[in-house]
Amino acid sequence: MSGRRGRISDEEINELISKLQALLPESSRRRNAIRSPASKLLKETCSYIKSLHREVDDLSDRLSELMSTMDNDSPQAEIIRSILR
Amino acid sequence: MAVKRTAPSPPTPRPNPNPNRRAPVSGADAASPSKRMLAFHFIRALARIHRSTPVPRRTRTIRRAAYSSMARAANPRRVWSRALLQQMRARRARTRRAAVLRRRVSAAPATPPGGARSITGEDQESTTLAALARTTAAAVPHRQAGEPARADALRRLVPGGNEMEYSNLLEETADYVRCLRAQVQLMQGLVDLFSGR
Fold this sequence. Notes:
Chain A: Pfam families: bHLH_ILI. Chain A is mainly α. Helices cover 73% and strands 0% of the residues of chain A. In chain A, helix 1 runs parallel beside helix 3 (38-69). In chain A, 19% of the residues are buried. Chain B has six helices and no strands. The interface between A and B is large, with 43 and 52 residues.
């Protein structure tokens, strides 16, 4: 790649990995040691991303349900319509 | 395409076009995406879906809107946000082409296989398939020396992950996770709001 001096050092890689670790939810952080092997962290990250994807699916479903309740005439529907206008 | 390793800059905040919009908004910091922009894109998409999408298709459309608005609100220099928008565009183009094909096939009255119309249809189909094959072939995961095995799985999960260098993959993953989390929080906030809580 242009503009790069040789390979990225292992130190920088470790730094990036610890940044990733900081993003993982509290529970998995407690289970892991402060410096977990990179592969374990990557695995945690993969399952975290997958769980986030699942949450998006689930929330889309609930939003779709709630949207259909907006088709009724109700004070809630009015509030929601005013927000979406 | 060379990807420069630059620090992500905070997105320039745009003025809120709709003063009546009340959405869960907190201060945007340099590290996470602007929650205001996230809410703006997503809620606008929701309004459009509410107006014009038939009920049975809503869940799917809302999910796609979640990912595109997330990609739009993100830093456009991020590989994952560009890759995500590209994927959405490609999918829309494919569905449109498939719809055109279906119309041609159903409109053509029992044409023999050598008929002019079916040849055009086949040409369209093969171009679509060829384009698809090209993108999948280019998307072969690019494993580097010293990269842990798990990185392959990560490459598949992060949009555009197949073409990134390992160090870039880690950076992009961190940004992708932050944006995903913000999107989930936004959607949860909306669900709470719409449930009248």
